[in-house]
UniProtKB/TrEMBL annotation, chains A, B, C, D:
Organism field: Acinetobacter kookii
GO biological process terms held by the UniProt record: organic acid catabolic process
Domain 3-hydroxyisobutyrate dehydrogenase-like NAD-binding: 160-281
Protein name per the record: 3-hydroxyisobutyrate dehydrogenase
Keyword NAD: yes
Amino acid sequence: MIQSVAFIGLGAMGYRMAAHLPQHFDTVYVWNRNFEKAKQHATEYGTQAVELEQAVQADIIFSCLPTSQEVEDLIATVQIKSGAVWVDCTSGVPESAKKLSQQLKASEVDFLDAPVSGQTIGAENGTLTVMIGGEAAAFEKALPAIQAFGKLIKHVGDSGAGFAVKAVNNMLLAVNLCSVAEGFTTLKAHGVNLHEALDCINASSGKSGVTETVLPQRVLNREFPLTFALPLLAKDTGIALDLVRDAKLSAPVIALTQSLIQAASNLAEKDSDFSSAVKMYESWSKITLE
Amino acid sequence: MIQSVAFIGLGAMGYRMAAHLPQHFDTVYVWNRNFEKAKQHATEYGTQAVELEQAVQADIIFSCLPTSQEVEDLIATVQIKSGAVWVDCTSGVPESAKKLSQQLKASEVDFLDAPVSGQTIGAENGTLTVMIGGEAAAFEKALPAIQAFGKLIKHVGDSGAGFAVKAVNNMLLAVNLCSVAEGFTTLKAHGVNLHEALDCINASSGKSGVTETVLPQRVLNREFPLTFALPLLAKDTGIALDLVRDAKLSAPVIALTQSLIQAASNLAEKDSDFSSAVKMYESWSKITLE
Amino acid sequence: MIQSVAFIGLGAMGYRMAAHLPQHFDTVYVWNRNFEKAKQHATEYGTQAVELEQAVQADIIFSCLPTSQEVEDLIATVQIKSGAVWVDCTSGVPESAKKLSQQLKASEVDFLDAPVSGQTIGAENGTLTVMIGGEAAAFEKALPAIQAFGKLIKHVGDSGAGFAVKAVNNMLLAVNLCSVAEGFTTLKAHGVNLHEALDCINASSGKSGVTETVLPQRVLNREFPLTFALPLLAKDTGIALDLVRDAKLSAPVIALTQSLIQAASNLAEKDSDFSSAVKMYESWSKITLE
Amino acid sequence: MIQSVAFIGLGAMGYRMAAHLPQHFDTVYVWNRNFEKAKQHATEYGTQAVELEQAVQADIIFSCLPTSQEVEDLIATVQIKSGAVWVDCTSGVPESAKKLSQQLKASEVDFLDAPVSGQTIGAENGTLTVMIGGEAAAFEKALPAIQAFGKLIKHVGDSGAGFAVKAVNNMLLAVNLCSVAEGFTTLKAHGVNLHEALDCINASSGKSGVTETVLPQRVLNREFPLTFALPLLAKDTGIALDLVRDAKLSAPVIALTQSLIQAASNLAEKDSDFSSAVKMYESWSKITLE
């Protein structure tokens, strides 16, 4: 059914995600603002580096850009093939998804918000989680292409729902980043062995992705490898808080965490990994989490 | 080496923990305020229901009571065997552990704070996590007895350190309970399918013990089974906040969460499970998490 | 210079504000959606109840509506006299002021955001505080008309600045409402005489508009007279938080207060005065502030 | 009736408070740890610098020390005259007042917790506000002496109530310090004229002691004069939070503010005035409040 697919945006995630497509489809277009990267991808994986105009003639068009703004700007400049499905893997804004979905309907193009999780390693192994908002028919149509890089693929609701789930996921990550930093500086202040404490908590009810992975692999070893920039996490917490506000709900922990991550981001050095948010707590307490 | 062990406090946890001891030790005393329960335990598991005075003549004495206050009150009334190790599995107060440890030294009794996690199922299977504070020699001495019901057993620091780790663990549980309630009422307000969203988050960086276990097994099924009372979680968040305050640290998310759990506890019906804290959010949002 | 003025929106504030204009100007148009009110105003104060089309032919046009949305909707339907100054006394959204200011420039109409404070009593006495954003020339032009009801009249910055100051003012009101409710339920729980305590605090560094006026005149007497609806305060705290977010700042107390006022508003009965926010705290603590 | 009075603790406040006593009483003892200061006070104001043992033989004994700890330590070392009233003007801990009150009853000494507000200028002019906890009879007995430096003198409740009111007052000051810093950095980020904005807010519902006095006299002029040290404000916010916790109440804004003031205090230079707490917000926002 799907004759051609395209991938737009070959960043750390997109580059690896697009690499799986040639195994499943004969025609795979790639495009990137810095076009050298597209050509390199073509050489490396047998994709075709093409002009943007051609890329948007594919049956299934993936995009993976920094924010929804870039997606909106890019879509505004192109004439997408009628009948295509645009699958946006950006960690974007639900309102933007609704707007683009509505707008593209006029050209008979479906828009799915389809953010992913699983980091670069998941992209490389094709084991990403993909949370998708939009119409069921479009979801069914695009599914075979999404399966090239996704393992757990879920249709979570109407347009915007995918972005909403991703934003809430990243907000929960942010909440745990803050609360674990608070808890572990406190334990260290009381002379507790952090590595032993971590083992206990990871076998108990307080465990989280942060205690299982972020703290041991990024913080306690003092590596803070840049794979997901702190300002992007700040952006995502803002998307989550906007969802709360739009629905006129009250979410005190989310609201506070958005403030704290924003402060940590404002204080951080350029190109800091999201895990560097703990450094704000370290400066408050004069305690190093190691 | 260990000739006799005792277990004081046969509540939901203690009853099951003590049941493993006869497999490893010939002399196992049990005692409970409601003494019928001790006699029932003796009948069921072959332990000996004895007076408190005799129980505290064991080499290793376990206690598992609601709060440190009960432990202090009980210890004040007895003459413990010199050379014994008292292993307190209560989710208690670090300051109290330090005080009791100091006080019992005069009678040549060691005190270990040794709270457990793993719930009644872990107690039943003998697979509890045990986080222990106190002197290394006492830890080594008591270890064979603790192994009867513990799987991951960690010496996390000096006196009070075990209680501190447990308090921080439960605080992290509380933080996740609040933030997940906030995030999921928000997702539902936006029409997202909560079960699909949960699957995605449990495969992503925002996952936690609450998303993996509490939400699906207690909240979304509307069961809220009483296994850990909400006022006890409120108490534990207070212990964690006291640790923050004692060290003159700043922990905004912990401080806010303590307030929220206290409010939820004040609003809850009697005998509410800790997971009922989400109902406060449900009343704010008129949204039911199901 | 000013030949004619108009006042659009004769609510509790606008009705009283417009009443001062005939003392200073010969031609005073008034308009209200429910037109009976305009006719009543004309009879009572000698203003002229006119069609909206005629009202917007005045030299200075005041508006005082519930939110910026109503102002935008209304302006979209009319052809305003070239050279006029539109003075919007709504407690509005800074972004909306910037947009309208820009948009009306094309018709050579100036737009000033000019929210007021001082409540109905200040409107009646013509002693309102007016905080104004927009171009200095427009401010100078409209000043004589604003002086009809304003006492302290300040040009606080460019377009949007007036709304911003009002939003921050109302946010500070909200913060004090919450913190005073928290502090006074706590004092009452400890048996303190609230009236004596209030006298002390009002002579000390912790005093605020809430301790001086709101608590004694609305809460402690249990009257909660509806003069400023709680959902409108919730809206204003949202405007303040949006300002924080737009500037990528971190304001934890503001963020938390927005959440709390939103929860209090969601929980409140219809037509609750803003001071009713304290009732959320009363339900948490089972303590009545009286 | 009162034959003799004593004043213990001649700091910035106490030195000025004690200066009023010789106008009303013939025998005025003063004592200070650094005794040179007592001698200087005697020379300057005609008081008698005496040994601590003699000071506590007065009918009314005032103390004004940094914290309740110093008061407890000092009282533990002396034999107070039977029938005396000890009036402690320290900003102290309610629990400590209850304990001392109980303890001194055995020696037939009354203890009043009587913290003051009004700063050094109020101490100098004898116009302090005094909020008093303890027995009514003791209050009546000490009143003539308290009137020497107090203007508004209130009996607010039983033992501890005076300290409680002071702690809540200072907490409200702290809340306003934080929220005003948040609000004004936000206004500045949006180009608003801070001085004009301040005038408007001080005529509106958002005003407070911080907007009326602290912001213009300490912050905007960048003077931050040290009259009340930031760590002491942090201590007082802690006393207020303890009151909340003891009563098992929920006070999210108070809890968060305690955390923020603690962080600001931890980050501040030595000998920083409480108003320096705004500098934490300035570092987060790269905005200076001037």
